[in-house]
Amino acid sequence: MESFALSTSSSFLLSTSSSLFIHKGSTLVRRSTPILRSPPSIALHRPNCKAWITPPNKKTSHFRIHASQTTPPPPPQGAKIAPFILSVAIGLAVRFLVPKPVQVTPQAWQLLAIFLSTIAGLVLSPLPVGAWAFLGLTTSIVSGTLTFPAAFSAFTSEVIWLIVISFFFARGFVKTGLGDRIATYFVKWLGKSTLGLSYGLTISEALIAPAMPSTTARAGGVFLPIIKSLSLSAGSLPGDASKSKLGSYLLMSQFQSAGNSSALFLTAAAQNLLCLKLAEELGVIISSPWVSWFKAASLPALVSLLATPLVLYKLFPPETKDTPDAPAMATKKLESMGPVTKNEFIMVGTMLLAVTLWVCGEALGIPSVVAAMIGLSILLLLGVLDWDDCLSEKSAWDTLAWFAVLVGMAGQLTNSGIVTWMSSCVAKTLQSYSLSWPAAFGVLQAAYFCIHYLFASQTGHVGALYSAFLAMNLAAGVPGILAALALAYNTNLFGALTHYSSGQAAVYYGAGYLDLPDVFKVGFIMALVNAVIWTLVGLFWWKFLGLY
Q: Which of 308, 309, 351, 337 is nearest to 184 (CA)?
């Protein structure tokens, strides 16, 4: 209920000492009826409304309340002025103030200025990401830097359309309830203790990940609702001291584990596919990409997945150690969900088909995007998804727009020789320090990882820096496939650095169970833990696989 607040300290005065009495001769006599002195109107306020009360008068014997509705101020429209000016200024400074290297053509230098201005806008957000990318694309055409076909060349990229279709698959998992059912089964099987509960949720995400290629959708559509339900039943409330009983630990563990789940499979995150596309443009071709990715990631990712809940159990312990009611709650929820529906069976069969084609597609001559198109067609034909579901998946179409712009610009920068020039400059610098390729590999990987503190998007980071850092690795003598895969795996791992570092970070932090200092502290410590595991286990495993 909304409450009104008095805007004045005035109170009703029925009379004053001078009006309560009258003089009769020298005697002061009390009036039989006091005189009513009208008080000032009393104003009341609430958001978007003004109200006031007037007292009784000769015509009325009661108080009257008056109200009028006010129109709230319209939200600001257009670009945010300060971020807009700064983003544009960066591009103009590069174009007109920074001397152009002799090796670079004027057109390539101008494209670099537009690209850097576009990247600055992705970080500073003067407009939504898709809108700002479109402005950058328009500028490149209007300025004569790119032709229309060159500017829009990436919109036909197979990888980008595979990313778009992956969003539709994720919607199918949420719409059918299949993801929720799978996770609930793991809670039923492993949820007798808080640590077991965390492992159940972690394993279930790892199993869902290859067929649900959106970490944000997995977080918001499947795991956050389950964790909130379990936490509330244990008396662990968001925004309250009781959150540390259960909710804070479960959310932190799931948040920190998600990056390893995404790194385990090529199709577990949209940015993975983009990384391989950009690597291909630099001449790094990975045969049987789905299998090769999984083989290289399997051992370090699985070790990290098993270590994360246990490390956090010591580092960020829950107050509640045992959750004996969780399996019963999961059983009750599964009963309320009823038997597996026809649409869930179709979703399982379709995703098994898609994953099979992704694994065996090269031998069968079926590209990954065609396998995804077949899967989506089945879901549409059988009614699991309808076209309105696809149209309303705004994130898919937004991703198509700005991914294609960034990939297109990055490809044109590579073709124009900018990336080659930049990588040669870095290679000369590294050589001046007499760094071997393993040392250069470590420095570049660490730099790529730490720079993510400046980004609010994993895919934005990839579009901005992946090509440049891969080129630097290649120039320093790092084996191509090793460099390409390591950068791609890092792209998933830095998604848990901060509360803004990825889509799932915003979902989990927004639930109200995590304090900001804890997010930064635990994010930094777990980044070091992952770095140790992926360096020691990863390098041993990659040597065994012959990647270097």
A: 337
Q: Which residues contact 110 (CB under 8 A, 6 or more apart)?
A: 95, 143, 145
Question: 134 to each of 234, 401, 516, how far by Cα in Å?
Answer: 48, 7, 33
Instruction: For residue range 280-312, list pLDDT tens digits in order.
Output: 988 999 988 999 999 999 999 999 999 999 999
- Tens digits of residue pLDDT in 51-97: 555 556 655 555 555 555 556 666 667 889 999 999 999 999 999 99
Residue 38 backbone class (left: φ over 0; alpha: ψ -120 to 50; beta: rest): beta
b/e burial code for range 87-96 (CB count within 10 A of at least 16 → b) = bbebbeebbe
CA 301 from chain centre, in angstroms, equals 21
> How far is the C-alpha of 496 from the C-alpha of 443, rounded, in Å?
21
The answer to whether the beta carbons of residues 123 and 456 sit under 8 Å apart is yes
Give residue for tokens 């990940």: 209
**Residue 47's pLDDT band (cuts 50, 70, 90):** very low
Residue among 407, 408, 369 nearest 169 (CA): 369
Alpha-carbon torsion angle 210, 215, 221, 227, nearest 10: 100
Token pair for 311: 């490390």
C-alpha dist (Å) from residue 401 to 155, 156, 180, 391 = 8, 11, 30, 14
Q: Using alpha carbons, select from 454, 350, 491 the residue that is nearest to residue 120.
A: 454
23: left (phi over 0), alpha (psi -120 to 50) or beta: beta
Ranges of H-type helices in 451-515: 458-461, 467-475, 480-493, 503-509
Q: Which two tokens stand for residue 169?
A: 């698959």
**Closest by CA position to 109, among listed 140, 152, 147:** 140
Are 41 and 53 in contact by the 8 Å Cβ rule? The answer is yes
- The C-alpha atoms of residue 222 and residue 77 are separated, in whole angstroms, by 34
Residue 507 near residue 470 (C-beta atoms within 8 A): no
Tokens of 308: 């994360």
What are the DSSP E strand ranges found in 347-502?
Answer: none
Q: What is the CA radius of gyration of the chain?
A: 31
Q: How far is CA 547 from CA 384, 476, 479, in A?
A: 41, 16, 7
pLDDT of residue 16: 40
Amino acid at 125: S
Cβ burial of 229 (10 Å; 0-12, 13-18, 19+) is middle
